[in-house]
Amino acid sequence: MLTIRDLSKTYANGVTALRNVSLNVPTGMFGLLGPNGAGKSTLMRTIATLQDPDSGSIRLGEIDVLADKDAARRQLGYLPQEFGVYPKEPAITMLDHFAVLKGIVDAKQRRDVVEALLKQVNLWEVRGHKLGGFSGGMRQRFGIAQALLGDPKLIIVDEPTAGLDPEERNRFLNLLAEIGENVVVILSTHIVEDVTDLCQNMTIISRGEVLLSGQPHEALASLDGRVWRKQVVKAELAQLQTLHTVLSSRLIAGQPVIHVLADSSPGAGFEAIAPNLEDVYFGKLRAQAAQAA
Ligand code: ADP
After folding, report:
1. HSE of 102, CA atoms in CB hemisphere, 13 A
2. Number of domains in the chain
3. N or C: lower Cβ tally within 10 Å for the chain?
4. Which domain holds residue 246?
């Protein structure tokens, strides 16, 4: 559905944000996972036709996105990281205004569309409330309603769950999953759990490079039998980090618990565990860092 080939971008200050990025993004939820500064927003903005790459191509179905931006924009809904709204406007008025901008000129049609969308994102009851009084989760759901105007085939959401409490986050992700049944939804995030349960396909990017691309269960299978856990004491942590590929270290009840990547048992006290997506993520980031060193 969405095909990205060899996309590269170096900013004027010399930072290379994308290096030959190639991705196939099918219908459904697609997780774009990477640390801050990985190039996620650059990629999102490029797909959303808001900035040009130095080279590469993007196709959305039959549309050459970079050559025919107007056609691409008609198929596209975007929820940017910083989504500004007029705080004094009621939700319904603002969405109606966005609908006009999206080209829905017929008043009756617009009323129907706005009503259906506010119901879909569960804001119909508060449609008359001012946006400035909305919680973070409500604002994001309003942002999705806005992105869905005009029946887009591709929805792009950039770091949408940052700052949401767990309940709002769940509600928001479930909404995205429902939308993803019919269209392509690209969810950019640095939060591994956002991708774990919801995304049928994913990619990990870091320093502008694609480190992995595929289905989460395949990524997990690639680490089967290779992730080991041990509770350690703080004093030995630094040494273990030099001896092993430590994927993560987390304090559990005050004691560090580490995950180590190794083809066979790293030593006494380590137990083999089922890998999780965070292990995959940190494993890829470690390997990239080791290669760069
Ligand atoms: P992410 O969304 O994954 O945090 P970004 O795409 O925002 O990553 O940034 C990737 C890299 O490009 C970072 O090093 C960032 O500082 C740099 N960058 C982003 N936008 C610009 C810009 N307009 N000019 C210069 N550098 C930029």
Report:
1. 27
2. 2
3. C
4. 221-292
Residues with CB under 6 A from ligand 1: 11, 13, 15, 17, 34, 36-42
Backbone angles phi, psi at 121, to 5 degrees: -95, 10
What is the per-residue pLDDT across 167-202, written as a single tens digit (0 to 9) for each? 888 888 888 989 988 899 999 998 898 898 789 999
Over the stretch 12-68, which tens digit does the pLDDT of each residue have?
A: 999 999 999 999 999 999 999 999 999 999 999 999 999 999 999 999 999 999 999
Angle at 32 between CA 28 and CA 37, to 5 degrees: 160
pTM of the model: 0.90
Distance in Å, CA 116 to ligand 1 centroid: 36
Report the separation in Å between the CA atom of 46 and the middle of ligand 1, taken as the mean of its atom positions. 12
116 & 243 share domain:
no
Q: Do 210 and 238 fall within a single domain? A: no
Ligand 1 centroid from CA 187, angstroms: 17
For residue 168, what pLDDT is reported?
87
Q: 186, 214, 242 — which closes off a domain?
A: 214
Which of 42, 41, 43, 38 has its CA nearest to residue 22?
Answer: 43
